[in-house]
Design brief:
mainly alpha; N-utilizing Substance Protein B Homolog, Chain A; globular
Length: 163
Amino acid sequence: MTLPSPTAQRPSRPRTASRVAAVQALFQAEQADQGIETVLAEFIRHRLGDPPGAGGFAEGRVPHAEVALFSRILRAAAVPEPLDREIAAALPPDWPLPRLDPVLRALLRAAVAELGMADGPPAKVVINEYLDIAHGFLSEEGGKLANGVLNRISRAHRPSEFL
C-alpha cells in the first residue's frame, strides 16, 4: 500500500526523493499496521531505485532515493508516540492529531524525526523539503498546517537557528 506519486513534483534530487519515500513508507506502516523494519525492507527491495524497465515513479517507485537517508528517517520515526506528542502540542487546539489526514501525519512524523537528528540539515532546509512534498500530496490547507506545525517544532528543537 503506497501513496500515489505526487502530481506537483517528480523529485530527481536524491535527498528529496528519500524524504518522499519516507513519507510513503510511514503512511504505509500506519495504514497497513506494519512495523517499520518490515516496511523498510519492502521499500528497499521493491520501491527504491530504478531498475531497467521500471518506468521511474510508476507503481509507487521512488527511483532516486538514497537508501541511507531513507532508512535513517524511518528508524528515527519508528516509535511514533514521542513524535505525535510534539506534533499534537504544535497543532491548533481545534485540530487534534487523529483529525489529521494520514498523509499529513506521515509527513509530519518524518519531518519531526529528521529535525530531531542532531547532525541533520538546517531546520529551514527540512521545513522547505517537507513543504515541497506537502504541495505534491496535500491540499493548500494541509500545506499551511504543515508549515505552521513544522515552524513551531523547529524553533523548539533548534532555537539557535532562528535568532
